[in-house]
Amino acid sequence: MKFPHMPPAWQPLMDRAIQQGKGDAFMEISHQENLRPDRYLHWDDFRYRAADKDDLTKEEQWAAIRMGRAMRSQSLPLVDPKGRPFTFFLTPKAFGLLREIDLHCGTGPSESAMVREETSRHQFDSVMEEALTSSQLEGAVVTRSEAREMICSQRPATTEHERMVMNNYRTMRLLTELKERSLTPEMILRIHREVTAGTLKEAVFEGKLRCAEDDVRVEDEESGEVFHTPPDAAALPERMLRLCEFANEAGMTGFLHPVIRAIVLHFWIAYDHPFVDGNGRTARALFYWSMLRNDYWLAEYFSISHEILKAPKQYYRAFLHTETDGNDLNYFILHQLEVICASIASLKESIRTKQEEAESLRRNLGAGGEFNHRQIALLKHALKHPFAAYTVVGHQTSHGTSNQTAKNDIVALEAKGFLQRGKIGKAFVYSPAPDLAGKLGFASPP
């Protein structure tokens, strides 16, 4: 990935334009940009799209846009090493995206109960997806089927990459407990320790802030170009306290939308890079903690990492655009708002697809009798994977139910001839019966 071109300093350009009597043209450009809510360009893109005009050069047009943005921006407690604050303002596009998120993540009491019940059926897949893709963003090489098998069977991870996935999965489950607590530096260290356990070169770095002698920088893996140098390690304890104050809504006056606060926390940890490794995983975990703390319950089910992984360069470029353009956080905020909305849409599409598949299976069960949604999900998987193996513990983990309920589900399927029981060691293992599709009334596997 190429480092973006640094924008020209806009204040000197503005001063010069005003001295040359271009003030009216300057204000017109600023006003026109405000009427284009569909875009928020960085100089790296703007310099190619803009054309020189008789009255203003590309650089002067850029200065006019930046002036307008600066006039609307408000400061955050997050500052760079020189003490300059990061800023943002809500663009028309941001307002629209926030409304979408509020509508889908914060429904009314009656609808919420109904939606929660349906969504919770897919909780395991959602949490596993975030655990897997967050790890893949950091370089883990684990397939979805491998991750599912490991988590369902609760077998110990055998590689560093598998440990990353399992750590993320356990951390996501832990966040539902931690959401009731105020954020403290100790809690951040605990989250980092959870996501990095057994994955760092030295265990001593787990849950520990980096030291001055730790040469921590963000570099391009191919060229070695330095993209980001985080603040000095000596400043981290104070910066961590300020972050916690902000997270606990004590660091600002007035109202700040909770989703914006969660996104800023995500950026803050990534910017400070307080750990030798595992900063990205910790940053995304804090985003989820903040969303859940503010009753955005759907955040427990959607996966932002799944969407980020589709275009990781856009994710990293949003960081760089913010840092290279006067600490303007709108680049990262807008990117993440789009990611959240896409994550919600993906979740809803996944649920819709699974509902249709389950309904199709129900229609073909015929003489098979009545089945609950857990049994239908297992049968659907078994039809597609005739050599799969199932255990009571795995079924229990997948659906978040009790051991006895899981056992009842599987024993009932065995009794109807849809599963065959075998034994590995002392544990019972169940496999799809031969000609399962025929037994269920399908001419062929769906």
Descriptive terms for the model:
446 residues, mainly alpha, Arc Repressor Mutant, subunit A, 3 domains, two-stranded antiparallel ribbon, 6 strands, elongated
Can you walk through the features of this model?
The chain is mostly helical and 446 residues long. It has three domains: 10-72, no CATH class; 77-348, Fic-like fold (Orthogonal Bundle); 369-439, Winged helix-like DNA-binding domain superfamily/Winged helix DNA-binding domain (Arc Repressor Mutant, subunit A, Orthogonal Bundle). 58% of the residues lie in helices and 6% in strands. The protein has helices at residues 10-19, 23-34, 43-49, 58-72, 92-105, 109-120, 123-137, 144-153, 160-178, 185-196, 236-247, 258-272, 279-293, 304-308, 312-324, 330-365, 373-384, 392-399, 403-415, 436-439, and strands spanning 74-79, 85-88, 218-219, 226-228, 419-424, 427-432. The strands form three sheets. Strands 1-2 form a two-stranded antiparallel ribbon. Strands 3-4 form a two-stranded antiparallel ribbon. A two-stranded antiparallel ribbon has the order 5-6. The two termini are 43 Å apart. Residues 107-112 have low confidence and may be disordered.
Order of strands, widest sheet:
1-2
What's the architecture of the largest domain in CATH terms? Orthogonal Bundle
Spans where pLDDT lies below 50 across 5 or more residues: 107-112
Distance between the termini: 43 Å
Order of helices and strands: HHHHEEHHHHHHEEHHHHHHHHHEEH
Taking all residues together, what is the mean pLDDT? Answer: 87
CATH topology of the largest domain: Fic-like fold
Number-wise, the strands total 6
Query: Which radius of gyration do the C-alpha atoms yield?
Result: 26 Å
Per CATH, the superfamily of the largest domain is Fido-like domain
Q: Which sheet architecture does the biggest sheet show? A: 2 strands, antiparallel
CATH class annotation of the largest domain:
Mainly Alpha
User: Shape, please?
Assistant: elongated
Number of discrete domains:
3
Q: How many helix segments? A: 20
